[in-house]
Write a structure and sequence with these properties.
elongated; alpha/beta; about 350 residues; 2 domains; Spore Coat Polysaccharide Biosynthesis Protein SpsA, Chain A; seven-stranded mixed beta sheet; UDP N-Acetylglucosamine Acyltransferase, domain 1
């Protein structure tokens, strides 16, 4: 039976990404100028999913406004609140049981970014009649993830959640496929972990111990869990580099004399002055103004940005940011409507800086 339904994550508070996520839902942070969760939706749709269910924090409205009902992708999207507070990602799936019913489904952690598609994994799941299938990726820090355990014949026999001494360098990524009812049957037999959560690894461990057919497939290309600021920047960098040249149209105004090399997208209404140097890959949003600055490589500028005099590399700059100074900005994420200005005198600097902000001078 083919998989036509998927659960995507849209909740949580992403404290490791503060201060950016104090005002923006993590899943709406732009990577290559596209909300993070849009990348997950597109992977699901390409694999044949027709109905998606997204969990939200209580009272959440922002996700619904940005994503809509799924018509943009030709599918149906339903949102549901996770009740009772954070209880682990396995609990997110349990909350969606009424939507899934007896159908097979995919569970996708929307902060996972991958280059390849999911079609091969879906086909293998169906062809081998698996009860469950896990996507794996080789990582440098497996202790941060669920880690698969294999027997001497390289068959999956267990999954350990964040082990202090990992048996290998593979991580179970946040992409899981489940057959009819197996997840919900397993959930009724697991207990909260020491940190008070229902762990997804406990589900897989239970299924394996019950003799269920659990497959594992290494993801082709690269995969990134965007749990930290540096992960977001790496994902943005890789996504920009892997985009096709056709994805970089020029809809703005570029003055003669501007130096442009590599793939550069200029959004509608944006103005690029003759004294600007652009080194792609770069995505410039709509209604931006760039003067006497050097941008790129691997920079994504949101709409309404105004940049004068600065040099920017390997960074994500959100909507309506203003940078009017000769700063060299690198490996940075700059929030919405942030302003950088240069003071002409040697007087003290006036600043308004929120919690957990990092300023390097």
């Amino acid at each position: 039976m083919k998989i036509k339904k998927a659960i995507l994550t849209g909740g949580g508070h992403a404290t490791r990404l503060h201060p950016i996520t104090t005002t923006v839902n993590k899943h709406l942070l732009p990577l290559a100028n596209k909300p993070m969760i849009f990348h997950a939706i597109e992977k699901a749709v390409k694999a044949g999913v027709e109905e998606i269910f997204i969990n939200t924090n209580p009272g959440e409205k922002e996700l619904q406004q940005h994503i809509g009902d799924g018509g943009h992708w030709g599918i149906k999207i339903t949102f549901f609140e996770q009740t009772g507070g954070p209880q682990g990602i396995a609990h997110v799936v349990k909350e969606a049981e009424k939507f899934i019913g007896n159908d097979p489904f995919m569970f996708y952690l929307s902060d996972n970014i991958l280059l390849g598609d999911l079609n091969e994994m879906f086909d293998e799941f169906v062809a081998n009649k698996y009860d469950c299938m896990l996507a794996l990726s080789e990582v440098k820090d497996p202790e941060r993830f669920g880690v698969p355990v294999f027997d001497e014949h390289n068959n999956l026999k267990d999954v350990l959640e964040k082990p202090q001494d990992p048996p290998n360098n593979f991580a179970v990524t946040g992409i899981y496929l489940y057959g009819t009812k197996v997840f919900f049957q397993a959930f009724d037999h697991i207990e909260r972990s020491a940190r008070g959560e229902y762990e997804i690894s406990s589900i897989h461990s239970y299924l394996l111990k019950q003799g269920k057919k659990v497959g594992a497939k290494e993801i082709t290309g690269w995969w990134k869990d965007t749990g930290k600021i540096e992960d977001l920047l790496i994902a943005n960098h890789l996504l920009l580099e892997k985009m096709d040249a056709k994805d970089f149209p020029n809809h703005g105004t570029v003055e003669e004399g501007a130096q442009i090399t590599g793939n550069v997208h200029v959004g509608s209404g944006s103005q690029i002055s003759k004294d600007v140097v652009l080194t792609g890959p770069i995505i410039i949003g709509e209604n931006c103004v760039l003067k006497n600055c050097t941008i790129g490589p691997c920079v994504a500028l949101g709409s309404g940005c105004d940049i004068k005099g600065a040099r920017v590399e390997d960074s994500i700059i959100l909507d309506n940011a203003e940078i009017d100074t000769d700063l060299f900005i690198q490996n940075s994420i700059i929030g919405k409507s942030v302003r950088f200005t240069k003071k002409s005198s040697d007087e003290g600097r006036s600043m308004v800086i929120g919690d957990k902000t990092v300023v390097e001078h």
